[in-house]
Structure formats: C-alpha cells, structure tokens
Amino acid sequence: MPEPTDLGVRLGAELTALALCWRIVRPDGVALGFTTHDRPLAIGGLVHDSAPGMAPSAVASSDGLDIDTMDVAGALTADAITAADLAAGRFDGAAVMLFLVDWQAPDAGQQLLARGTLGTIETGTGADQGFAATLRGPTAALAVTRIESCSPECRAELGDRRCRVDMRGRRERRSVLGGDGDRARFDGVDAAGSAGFIEGRVRVLSGESAGLERRVIAAEGDWLVFDETLMLAPGVAVELRQGCDKRFVTCVERFANGANFRGEPHVPGGDVLTRFPGL
C-alpha cells in the first residue's frame, strides 16, 4: 500500500509523525527555522534546527475581530537566538510563522497554526538563560489608528513621497571615532553640524552591529545620542541620515519645502487660551 503524501491524508492516519515548526524572519532579512523534532528538518529550502525547548502557549484563533496573541518561550542557543541579538533588537518586529509538518515527509505540506510578529521580548538572568516573547497576530494591526489627526507638526517623514525633499547629500557614510552605550562620535561630524542629525537615523554597515538602526534623539557637542543602546567600535562604518523636527519654520527655512508641509501650523490647538489669554 503506497504511503500517503498529502499532509491532510497523513493527519487522518491512525499513526501520525507530527513536528511543530517555527519560521522567523528578522527585519534585517535573516531567516531562522526551528522544530520540536529531534533532528533538523529541511522545509521549503530552509533548514529548521532541532529546538525542543522552544514551545508556544495554547494556540487559539477565531473568525472575529478580537486581537489574537500567543506567548512563546525557549532557550537561548549560541548559534541561533542569542542574548546579545535580543538585547540589540534584531528580533524586534520579526515575522513568525508556526506550523505542523510530518517529519517523515516535511515537504508533503504544512498545517498553519499561527502567524504574526514578535512583540515584547524578555530574557532571563542567571541560571534562567531563556527568553519569552509575545506573538501578535494579524488582527493586532486593527488596533492601530490609521486616520491622521490634525497637528501643528508635519506627519510626513523626511525624504518620503509626501515630503519630497531630495535626500541626495543628506545621507553620509562615516566611520565611528568612539562609542559609549547610547551615544557615539563620527569622523567629519563636529559640534556645529551634529544638530542636523537630530531626529535622523544611524544605520550600521559593518562590525558586530551591522544591520541595526537607531534614531538620533539629541546632540551633545559632537556626540550623537540614540534612542537605544548601540554598541559601536572605532572604525565601524555607518550611514548617517539627517533629521527634521517637523516644524513648519524648519521646513521653510532649512529645506525650502513649505509647499509640501503635511501639518496645520496655523490651526489653534488645545492650548490656545494659554497662548492667547485675551481670546
């Protein structure tokens, strides 16, 4: 009697050989695969390493509009998910797919159980060297407000299709002179020019932190301060992108782009009575 090849047929057999599999795609494009089986499985061109300690909470889904979430827990492994990568934010917002396969025929088909993106990630300390994360399902996007509200600040991002500022010459490739946690100095960036990068971005091009990106929130002399810690060694190459504080006066005077300003700078706000007490 020939063996069934379709996963649906195999699920209906008296004996099953099912394995739970994870596929994680980080924002930087790195794809990782894991399985609860006791040996690696090649599925769809990606090798899913054996990780029996990585397990989800109860998987539940519905046809309603409730936000689906699921907890994921596992052990840190040196070659796949490390504490350093988690702390650096490499897995923040990673796309995750959880599915079942028949380990005897991994390419016979997949039974999708859940998919979404990783939310809050917590790591253990001391003897508890593991991690726990929340998987947000597709319905989590329904909780995000999509309608723009009236605001005096610009709602566009510098250089996007609504802003239309030409970014040529506003992206610079620099080398790190020194780093200290959430701040760093770069060659060619002095105290006078550092303010132009506030609300901009720094993207690491080489070294251990390659692929990571941080927002610049302040400038202290010739030091740029980031919104999160970023480990940078001297000589590491980065791309610095200028920023914008989204004020109308900045749009007009610095970028000569008032016609494309996406805000309402002259509409009175909730503080109109304190700004104009005579009204």
Topology (SSEs and partners):
Elements: H1 7-11, E1 18-25, E2 31-35, E3 41-43, E4 46-50, E5 55-56, E6 69-75, H2 83-88, E7 95-102, E8 111-123, E9 130-136, E10 171-179, E11 183-186, E12 201-204, E13 213-220, E14 223-226, E15 237-241, H3 248-253, H4 272-275
Parallel strand pairs: 2-4
Antiparallel strand pairs: 1-2, 1-7, 3-4, 5-6, 6-9, 7-8, 8-9, 10-11, 10-15, 11-14, 12-13, 12-15, 13-14
* Relative strand content: 25-35%
Write out the strand line-up for the largest beta sheet, numbering strands in chain order: 3-4-2-1-7-8-9-6-5
Count every helix, treating DSSP H or I runs of 4 or more residues as helices: 4
Give the % helix.
under 10%
- Helix and strand content put the structural class at mainly beta
Order of helices and strands: HEEEEEEHEEEEEEEEEHH
Instruction: Identify low-pLDDT runs.
Output: none
Radius of gyration: 25 Å
